[in-house]
Design goal:
This protein is mainly α and 233 residues long. Helices cover 61% and strands 0% of the residues.
Length: 233
């Protein structure tokens, strides 16, 4: 009898009310599982056990959904480290942002498209950038140098960078690519560089560049350069 009562009580327990936080969490989980192609209002509603129209009480449209998802992810970035120098604080936070993006591979493209589409970034992104500027200012940077720093670091502040030149060996060969001999003759410097950075297939890194190493190399180079300029601009 006790067992039956317990089961009835569990069955009649009210479902957690729908909220914007639940909608966004479900959307992030779907994107993590299947990429942005898996994301739709219908699928989010199915995951939450509601009708699709119920979602629009919390997110007005697809763009608002994407903006909210960005804010969820930015909320995963570690807060600024205390009792440390500006360079360490910036570095730790940027690498935390990068770890967040590696957990959510779909995020860089969405962030780039939405940041470009909006007149101002989302509230969480604004708070994050304001905090990063604060670290620079507390570290002795002039407003002018902070302005330059924000430009030079760009999307790297959020853990990613738009590469001009990707040598990802996982991509399918281009059937229209010119023969290697012609490539070497026409673009000798590109060919020399490509040959120099091609890693051994048996190495830990594998063929192509180590993205994490390249990211940290550029980050450290930038921070070292900014340190040299601190106090001069």
């Amino acid at each position: 009898m006790v067992e039956i009562t317990t089961q009835v009580g569990a069955a009649t327990q009210p479902r957690a009310p729908l909220s914007k936080e639940r909608v966004l969490s479900a959307a992030v989980a779907l994107a993590d599982e299947g990429g942005m192609d898996a994301l739709s209002m219908r699928r989010i509603a199915q995951a939450l056990g509601v009708v699709p129209m119920a979602l629009y009480k919390h997110v007005a449209n697809k763009n608002e959904l994407l903006d909210g998802m960005i804010d969820v992810l930015v909320g995963e970035i570690d807060p600024p480290a205390g009792d440390t120098d500006w360079k360490t604080a910036i570095r730790l936070r940027v690498l935390s942002a990068r770890r967040m993006l590696l957990r959510h591979p779909w995020a860089p493209e969405v962030m780039e498209s939405r940041i470009k589409a909006r007149a101002t970034p989302t509230p969480a992104v604004m708070e994050y950038l304001d905090s990063m500027i604060g670290i620079f200012r507390t570290g002795g940077f002039s407003v002018d140098l902070v302005h330059h720093a924000m430009h030079v670091m760009g999307s790297r502040l959020l853990g990613f960078s738009q590469e001009l030149f990707e040598d990802n060996s996982d991509r399918e060969p281009d059937p229209d690519a010119m023969p290697p001999e012609e490539m070497a003759a026409r673009y000798p410097h590109i060919t020399e560089l490509a040959m120099a950075v091609a890693h051994d297939q048996e190495s830990i890194v594998g063929s192509g560049c180590d993205d994490q190493f390249e990211f940290e190399f550029a980050l450290d180079l930038t921070l070292d350069g900014l340190e040299r300029l601190r106090g001069t601009i």
